[in-house]
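Hi everyone,

Forwarding the result from last night's run.
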Amino acid sequence: MQEYKLFIDGEWTNSSIKDTFDDIDPATLETIATIQVAGRDDIDRAVESALKGFKVWSETPPPKRADVIYKAADILTKRKEELARLMTKEMGKVLDETRGDVQEAIDIAIYAAGEGRRMFGETTTSELRDKFCMTILRPIGVIGMITPWNFPMAIPAWKIMPALVAGNSIVIKPATDTPLLTIKLVEILMEAGLPPGVINILFGPGQIVGQSIVHHPDIKAISFTGSLETGKWIMSECGKSMKRVSLELGGKNPLIVMDDADLELALEGVLWGAFGTTGQRCTATSRVILHKDIKDEFTNMLVEMTEKLKLGNGLLPETDVGPVINKSQLDMIKGYIDIGKDEGAKLLTGGNVADIDLPGYFFESTIFTDVKPDMRIAQEEIFGPVLSLITVSDIDEAIEVANNTRYGLSSAIYTENITDAFKAIKKIDSGITYVNAPTIGAEVHLPFGGVKGTGNGFREAGLEAIREFTEVKAVYIDYSGRLQKAQIDQ
């Protein structure tokens, strides 16, 4: 079993304190690694390293930065299966999904590297004679990144690759439940030629390491993916020093099934959206809004197929659903089952800690019906394999119910009616809407993010990814040879 140190200034270095934590396989409860915890002195060292790295990296031409990221994508591709298997051991989700997680890292690396020759500003006309106007993009500086455990390679890559091609340096704190894939990602970037100090890794609890990153005066921006409450705190703290902050927070994602929908197609979408990654996605389908005319038929189909899902170790090909990440998450899911029952929802299937031949954190795939839109199980992000069914009479009521949460990340509608589809696209308050597909499955060349309690206006991936990690500067070049005064009558 390997013990991992901190990564500062291109080297693995011992923490200044003696504390460590264990990295646990959630399926078998075996310890797969021991990780050193950063102290406050280590955080200062990492930021000092990043400041030096920024001076070198920001002066590197963007196409040369892109060369490093292209090489990293090539190494990731060659090591995809190895990394996927490690991720399944560390995080728990099934092997097909961890392969997809690594593929997202490959895709965003290739996409971001392409932006190395597309760091476009704008040119425009001036209101004055003999004057030229344009904008340019500049890197921000040292970026603090705090990433979650559910996509332990894809989400760090979504942040790291665009930030790097834009010329920034990085101090990153991965989730304590899944640090190994960030370690491997950074090792690959160094192998690809990233200069020392450009990226640094710190490990430890959010209350110490995360807060210190947020508060450090030389970290100029924070990129955070996690819970709404933590995101609110980060935004408040960053506001005190006018620090750039981008947030990707929770979701309570609705999937509407209308009376004219292809029910078999919708069934596949709901199963994948609700129980893929054991429901541990910010984009997971957690509410299915059913038209009353197909409610009974679709519910019967859904329960039948849900009960056939096989729980187990994600490394085994017969496994459909892996474990939840840890005991705390397991206990929280159990608590929401009691909440749903107490509120009057009807439990159709699941609702229990799974009794299988493994010691890990397994929970049955669960469906509630007769759920009212204002119930807590229909409002709060459970982050587990728990699905709420809500009945409506028409498309307008369906959209009203869909919008009835504080979140606005992803949404979906199954219908053959183009009018209903475009109503959903236009009126659902979310950053993403799918038609005849589930609420999960983002592509890296489109912006990812949400509205309301899901974020603060920034988007990841797509062209927005570069904007997240750059500042825009307006440039005026006056070649008239005389003083010209804009907005002053001549």
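The chain is about 40% helix and 20% strand.

Cheers,
N.
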